[in-house]
Amino acid sequence: MIRILRQLTKIGSITEPLAEANNEIEQLGKQLDPVIRKRFAGSLAIRAVDAGSCNGCELEIHAANNAYYDIERFGIHFTASPRFADMLLVTGPVARNMETALKMTFDAMPQPALVVAMGDCAANCGVFGKDNYAIAGAVSDIIPVDVIIHGCPPTPTDIIQGILQAIGK
Amino acid sequence: MRHLANTWFAEKLGDHGVYTQYLEDHHPAHMPCLEIRILDWEQAAKTARLLDMRLVAVWATEGGCHEQDEGMYAYMAYAHPEHRHAMVRTLLGKTKREISSIAKHYIAASRMERHMQDMFGITVTNTPDQRRWLKHEHWPEDAHPLLRSFAHDTRMEKACGEYPYLHSGSEGVYEIPVGPVHAGIIEPGQFRFLAVGEQILNMETRFGFVHKGIEKAMKGRTAEQGIKLAGRTSGDSTVGHAWAFAQACEYAANTDVPARASYLRGILCERERMANHIGDVGAICNDAAFAFMLVQMHRLREDMARLHADIFGHRLLMDAIVVGGVAVDPDAEACRALLEQTRTIAAEVEHLRTIYADNPSIQERVIGSGPVSIDDAKDIGLLGYVGRASGNYPDERIEEAYPPYDNLDVNVAQGKLGDVSTRVWVRFEEIADSARMIIHLLENLPKGDIQADWQAPEAGISGFSAIESWRGEIACWLRFGEAGAIDRYFVRDPSAINWLGLELAVREVPVPDFPLNNKSFNCSYSGNDI
Lengths: 169, 530
Ligand code: SF4
Prior knowledge:
The structure holds two protein chains of two kinds. By secondary structure, chain A is of the alpha/beta class. Chain A has helices at residues 2-11, 24-39, 56-64, 99-107, 120-124, 139-142, 156-168; strands at residues 44-50, 76-78, 87-91, 94-95, 114-118, 135-137, 147-149. In chain A, the strands form two sheets. A five-stranded parallel beta sheet of chain A has the order 2-1-3-5-7, sandwiched between helices. The radius of gyration of chain B is 23 Å and the shape is globular. In chain B, helix 5 (223-230) packs antiparallel against helix 6 (238-253), helix 7 (259-287) packs antiparallel against helix 14 and helix 7 (259-287) packs antiparallel against helix 16. The longest helix of chain B has 29 residues, at 259-287. Among the domains of chain B are: 4-125, NADH:ubiquinone oxidoreductase Nqo5 subunit (Beta Polymerase, domain 2); 223-255 and 457-492, no CATH class; 259-370 and 421-452, Cytochrome-c3 Hydrogenase, chain B, CATH 1.10.645.10. Chain B is built from 17 helices and 16 strands. Chains A and B meet through helix 1, strand 1, helix 3 and helix 4 of A and helix 4, helix 8 and helix 9 of B.
C-alpha cells in the first residue's frame, strides 16, 4: 500500500488543460459547465455503441478517460445501460449485422436523446465503403445524428470537443 | 528474399500417399502451395496432424486467370516449428461443391469451414457444426457474398430465423445471454452462458456482428489502397495487419524491402505490442477492482501514443507501413526520443509489476483463474500470449524469422499453467522483451532507403505471409488480378483461433470472474468477423 501511495504522490496530478493549442476545450468546458449543471443535473451519461468499428475508435474513447484527458472532470461518464443515458456515442460504419442492435439501443433511450457519430466510419463508412453488402450505412442513415466527429480515429481531444459541442446545441 | 523451395511437406505427404503438385504462381517458395486431389483432402489434414503441424487456416476462393475453368478451390495452411509454413489446395467439383471437414483432426477448422459455407455456398460434409457463422439469420439463404456472381454492393433482403444456441435441459441450469452490445466500451458479440449457481458450465460465443465484408471490399483495390483497409481489420493491431498485407504483396512481387524499412517495421510492431500489453494489464487489473494499475498503465500508453503521433503522424500507428517499406523515416532526434521513451516505459512497467506482484487482493483473483491445459492449447493451436501461457509457443518471429527478426534473438516467454496470472506474466515478459528489441533495433538502425520501388506482379500471382502481431500470428493470402489490383484476399486474425481458448478457459469459472478472463485473452471481434 505504501508503494502505491508513493507512486501516486510521485506522479501527482497529470490531468492537463486540453488542446494545448489555445485551450479551446477548457474554454468550452467552462462555458458548458452551467449547461451540464442545468440540463443534465451536473452529469451527462453516455452509452457508447460499437456498430461495426475496427476498435481503433474505442481505444481513443478509452484514452479520453485516461488521467491526461479525464473526461469525467466535465461531469461526463460512460454508462452500461441505454435506459438512463443522455447521449449515444456511435462508432464504426453500421454493420448490417449490427443494424437492429443499434436501433434497439437507440429506442431504449429516454427521449430526447443526443446522438454523436464518432469517426470517419460512423460519418461516411470510411475505408469500408457504402457500396458494401455488409454495411447498412453511415450512422445517420440508421438513426438521427446530432454531431459528427471526424478522424480515423478522432483523437481524445476531438472526442471531448465533439461531445461538448453536442451538449451545447 | 529469394528462398529455397521448401519441399519437406510435399515429401511427407508423398510418403502418406498424397500426390502433390507444386504451384509456380504462388510465392514465396519457402511457404509453398501444393495442389492435391480432392479425395486426398482429409488424408492431407491427417498427415499434417501426424507430423505435429499446426493448422494455420482453412479458406476458399474462386480461381483466377491462371485457373482455366475458373473453378472453386479450397485451401489449408499448416506450420511446423522447424519446417515452416506450407499450403495445400484442391479443386472442388464443378457441380457438387462439396468438401469433407477436417475438424476431427483440427477443431479450430470448424468455424473457418462454416465461414466457407456462408461465403461460398460450399457444402462441408462430416462437420461437427453445420450452423451458420458470420452469415446471420437475417441474410437470405442463398446469399454467398464471396462468389463472383454476388455484386459487392448487393442490398440483401431481410430473412427471418433464430440462431440455434446450445441449450441445456437439465434442471438448475440457467442461461445468461450477454450482448451483442456489451456493458463496457468494447466491441459487440454474443456470449451465451449456461450456469449452475455461480459457476459457468459452458460459454458459447456468437460473432459476426462487426462483419464488414473486408475480403470482398479488397477486390479491385491496388496494393497501395488495400493496405489502408488491411490496416483497419483490427484497429489495435494495425501494424500487424498492415505488415502481413504488405509482406504478402511483396512476396508475390518478389520485392525486397530495404533493411532500414524492416528495422523500422520491427520497431513499430514491437511498440504496438508494448502499448497493447500495457493497456491490457491495466484493464485486467481494473476488472479485479485494482483501478490504480489501470490509471498508471493508461498513462504510459498515452505517452506512447503521443510520441507515435509526433514521429509517425498517428497515435495508433495506422498507415505507418506501406507496401514496399514504411511511410516515415524518423531522424536522429526522433530515434533518440523513441529510445529514451522505450527505456523509461520499460523501467516504469517493471516498477509497477512489483506492486502488482505484491498485491494480495489482485493475486488472489488471477492465480488459478481460467486455466487452459497444455494439451488443449496444443489441440486448438492457441496463438500469441494466450498460447505462450499454456505451453504452446508458436512465434513467427522465430519460425519464419522474417527481417528484422532474422538478426534478432526473440525470448519467448514459456508459461505452462495457462491461468489469468500466467497470461499476465507472459504480457509483462513480452513488454520487457519488446523494449529490449526496440532498443537493439534503434541502436543498430541501418542507413538507407525506407521504401522499395513497388511494382505489382502480373495477374494470377498469389502471395502468403505470416506475421507475429501482438496478439499472435496473422496469416494473409492474396492473389493479384489485372492491372495490379487485388483479386482475392484472405486474412486470419489470431482471434479466430484464440476465442476457442476462452470458451474452454471459463468453464467452471464463477460468472463474475468472466470479465477478468475475457480481458486476459483480449481477442478481437473485428479481426474475427472481418
Ligand atoms: S474511423 Fe478509423 S479507427 Fe474508427 S472505426 Fe473507422 S477505421 Fe477504425
